[in-house]
Amino acid sequence: MTASHSTSAVIIANGRYPDHPLPLSLIREASFIVCTDGAANDFIARGGRPDAIVGDCDSISPENRERFAAIIHPSADQETNDLTKSVQYCVAEGRKEIVIVGGTGKREDHTLGNISLLADYCQFAQVMMVTNWGRFTPINGST
Q1: DSSP calls for 4-19
Q2: Residue 5 has what pLDDT?
Q3: DSSP letters of 79-117?
Q4: What pLDDT sits at residue 142?
Q5: Cys-Cys crosslink for 35: which of 40, 42, 84, 92, Cβ 3.0 to 4.6 Å?
Q6: pLDDT beyond 50 at 48
Q7: Residue 69 is part of which domain span?
Q8: What is the arithmetic mean of pLDDT over 111-131?
Q9: How many domains are contained in the chain?
Q10: Above 70 in pLDDT, residue 27?
């Protein structure tokens, strides 16, 4: 991804937190980090400070909910998952290039769902999912 830092974002989803150097470097070098509410607790415990926390807020600890209240963007919509809400938030904020980490590695149904949703997300932004084992980049007819 080559966009300027002002139009790019890293989303940390609530899957397995990466331990491979590539996704870790993307997190470390990101100018804008969004955590799904389920991922926020782990990222904060690792010393991270997200720029935004997005989701239905059913997973964030009460302590972090209070501490980071100013950057929490709640959505009660139960028709979309927190990763989709985070992508929508980034697009609304003008982010044109989005890297997703932590989107795989726990429940298989969530992993498959998150990968398949990349095709939906690429209609709105250049999006890529990076894991410990590879990269997923959706393409469409105009790519």
Answers
A1: -GGGEEEEE-SSPPP-
A2: 56
A3: SS-HHHHHHHHHHHTT--EEEEES-SSS-HHHHHHHHHH
A4: 59
A5: 40
A6: yes
A7: 5-136
A8: 84
A9: 1
A10: yes
Q: How far apart are CA 61 and CA 76, in angstroms?
A: 17
Domain contains 105? yes
CATH number at residue 97: 3.40.50.10240
Structure tokens that stand for 123 in this block: 């209609």
The residue with tokens 């927190």 is 82
**Which two tokens mark 87?**
């992508």
Neighbour-count burial of 71, counting CB atoms closer than 10 A to its CB (0-12 exposed, 13-18 middle, 19+ buried): middle
The residue behind tokens 């979309």 is 80
Separation of CA 141 from chain center: 25
**Packed helices 82-92 and 108-121: angle between N→C axes, nearest 10 degrees:** 20
Strands 52-55, 33-36: pairing kind? parallel
Residues in the chain: 143
**143 domain residue, yes or no:** no
pLDDT for the residue 12 = 97
CB atoms under 10 Å from CB of 138, counted, come to 18
Distance CA 121, CA 132 (A): 21
Tokens at 12, concatenated:
């940390």
Task: Tell me whether residue 133 is exposed, middle or buried, using C-beta atoms within 10 angstroms of its C-beta: 0 to 12, 13 to 18, 19 or more.
Answer: exposed
Residue 136 token pair: 């997923």
